[in-house]
Amino acid sequence: MKRSVIIISMLVFLAVWVCGAKTPVDKIGITGDPAYAGAKIFKFPWAVQAWTFRNFSFFDTLKKVKELGVQYLEAYPGQEIGGDLKGVKFDHTLSDPQIEQVKKALAAEGITVIAYGVVKFANDEPSMRQVFDFARKIGILTIVTEPESDDYSLLERMVKEFDIQVAIHNHPLPSKYALPQTVLDHIRNLDARIGVCADTGHWMRCGVQPLNALKLLSGRILDVHLKDLNKFDLKKAHDVPFGTGKAGIHDILAELSLQDFKGFLVVEHENEKEVNNPSPSILKGLAYVKGITYYQDYEEILGRPAGKYGKSGWNHYGPGYFTLDERAGVLQSQGGMGLLWYSVRKYKDFVLELDYRCSRKDTNSGVFLRVPDLPASNDYIYHSFEIQISDAEEGIHKTGAVYDAEPPTADAARPTGEWNHFKITFQGSRIQVELNGKAVLDWQVQPRGKVKDFAAEGYVGLQNHDSISPVSFKNVYIKELK
After folding, report:
1. Confidence (pTM)
2. Taking the alpha carbons of 325, 478, 439, 339 in that order, is the dihedral positive or negative?
3. Same domain, 286 and 365
4. How far, in Å, CA of 265 to CA of 49, rounded?
């Protein structure tokens, strides 16, 4: 009996040693972490890995992706293109005329190829350059690969030259990059554009808890092949709709949100029994994710239509300006006093949520609500309300106040240098402000202080105040209230 116990214990230890620390199958997705329960899950952009429709041509895949309501595709090398290019495979050896035919088909269906892989190439410049040049011609943001060489110096040089990301994928054991620590060891000191394509399903097949892997790789995740499997720690486990398997999809998405992940979630449904019709399972899974997404009904007005953030729709009035980190989606004020305002439309009743960060205790900024007209002079400050950002001030000039009119009821700002979250609701004549989850203001508005009158609808804007104490903003979402 003792010998049996010893043998069993040794087998368990060996399994953990080979595949990494594991969570018992009945505990997958049950973390007990309150941060996940209350996390505001982002509305991530979705793509479909073309391998999902591997029994169809590339052109047919475009139609099927469009039917799913998805606008982005991750292509793989080797799929027959179809149409007039019957017999031709989609890969980086396509001629320029063939590439133009592919791009016309993509435009016709409204689909954008944002990633390409898993692709192999030799660790020499001609082979590598061919792949990067192809990616640039198509407009691909990320190349997904599993390098055979441990020397990433040439790869890093190509990434810097082309400004195209490389994401290291993890096929299951005995693949070289099956375990997350192996990938991290290869990339930790390299350019930030060399990161990880996190395949949650393949980690599960090796017995690696996706949450543990995502935490380990935080900050280096560029692309996620999101999968939910029916079994944990089973190589032959198969894909099931998101939320019905053992992956713990809610907590995975919560963790990615807390990490401020800025990439795409990629559907790669590999269930062989559904290879000819994976769409029903995919739609069921997407509906589940939609149901748990906090920002689902919001519009991200500091958007990323092509995978990189842009200020499309935003205009600036007055001195100073805002810089934008296209990859991180962070606005930072420079100089002032001016206003960056969202000019696409006016809003009447709405909820505005955003994150901000002060560079100094005396950082001064604000969020403007219902700016009635296109700002052409400083007169807008007398006809719209400003939710103040100024930790060094008090009363009607303190963070959370309606500037010069109504003070906050509590101080909920985090220490200087940390990100804060504003939730601002303006409905009818009532403004409510939550700062970091705490209610700090509830006011029936009226002309007061600098505000002479106010409009029933208007633009929203972000203030840059001075050049000494910059403020940063990110994750700007708005939801109309009907």
Report:
1. 0.88
2. positive
3. no
4. 10
CATH code for the domain in which residue 262 is found? 3.20.20.150
151 domain residue, yes or no = yes
**Do residues 147 and 235 share a domain?**
yes
The yes-or-no verdict on residue 14 having pLDDT over 90 is no
- For residue 31, the model assigns a pLDDT of 58
Q: Which residues contact 238 (CB under 8 A, 6 or more apart)?
A: 229, 230, 270, 271, 272, 273
- Residue 8 clears pLDDT 90, i.e. is over it: no
Residues 202-230: tens digit of each pLDDT: 999 999 999 999 999 999 999 999 999 99
Residue 11 placed within a domain: no
Domain that holds residue 391: 314-480
Q: 139-153, 182-196, 291-305, 387-401: which range is least confident on average?
A: 291-305
| Residue-level pLDDT at 26 | 34
Whether 320 maps to a domain, the answer reads yes
Specify the CATH number for the domain of residue 409.
Answer: 2.60.120.560
Domain-embedded: residue 306: no
Do the beta carbons of residue 256 and residue 226 sit within 8 Å?
A: no
333 and 286 within one domain:
no
Domain boundary among 233, 261, 296: 296
Residue 29 pLDDT greater than 90, yes or no:
no
Mean pLDDT of 61-66: 98
Q: Are residues 377 and 287 in the same domain?
A: no
Across 344-369, average pLDDT: 97
**The total number of structural domains that make up the chain:** 2
Same domain for 249 and 323, yes or no, is no
Together in a domain, 337 and 368: yes
Residue 242 sits in the same domain as residue 357: no
Taking the CA atoms of residue 158, residue 160, residue 165 and residue 170 in that order, the dihedral angle to the nearest 10 degrees is 60
Tell me: do 145 and 32 sit in the same domain. yes
